[in-house]
Design goal:
Shape: globular
Number of helices: 6
Order of helices and strands: EEEHEHHEHHEH
Structural class: alpha/beta
Oligomer: single chain
Number of strands: 6
């Protein structure tokens, strides 16, 4: 069984979804792929993972870097899960590029090149927004390209990490 609860962030409603042991989705209301990820029947209930997720979001939106991560369950292909794991290594307040993530993946796999577009596709399907910080990925020229919840939210999240509260 899956459970959900809403969180009222300064950037709009966020839906947290979990089973009994881990968060499986943290998504801005109606961001891209919202219906697909949340299409499973859910009951509204605050589980232990959702409670931890709310605590994490409270800290984050108060302008503090949370010193813990709620239990997460990454559901996706092995490629997407690996990209999401790389995203979690991007430090708070920092950014990287799709090209740099592609370079890291190619190096890991022992291949000459990896497509930055393939990385972008995996980043776009990240079901655990903010905690898996896909907002910290920018274009090679530093452009704030793409974000499933909209570039305005991406900008606000990056500004928040620089000490500018929304």
């Amino acid at each position: 069984m899956r459970y959900f609860e809403y969180y009222n962030s300064p950037l709009g409603p966020i839906t947290l979804v979990s089973d009994e042991t881990a968060l499986v989705a943290v998504m801005f209301y109606h961001q891209r792929y919202y219906e697909k990820v949340l299409g499973v029947e859910c009951e509204r209930k605050i589980t232990a993972p959702i409670e931890k997720g709310i605590q994490w979001l409270d800290l984050y939106f108060s302008g503090k870097e949370p010193d813990f991560l709620p239990p997460l369950r990454l559901e996706g292909t092995s490629f997407r899960r690996r990209v999401w794991e790389l995203l979690m290594k991007i430090p708070y307040g920092s950014v990287t590029t799709y090209g740099e993530l592609a370079r890291q993946m190619a190096e890991e796999k022992g291949i000459e090149r990896m497509s930055a577009q393939a990385i972008g596709g995996a980043v776009a399907h990240n079901p655990i927004a903010i905690m898996i910080p896909c907002h910290r990925v920018v274009g090679n020229n530093g452009a704030l390209t793409g974000y499933a919840a909209g570039v305005q939210k991406k900008t606000a999240l990056l500004n928040l990490e620089k000490g500018q509260l929304p």
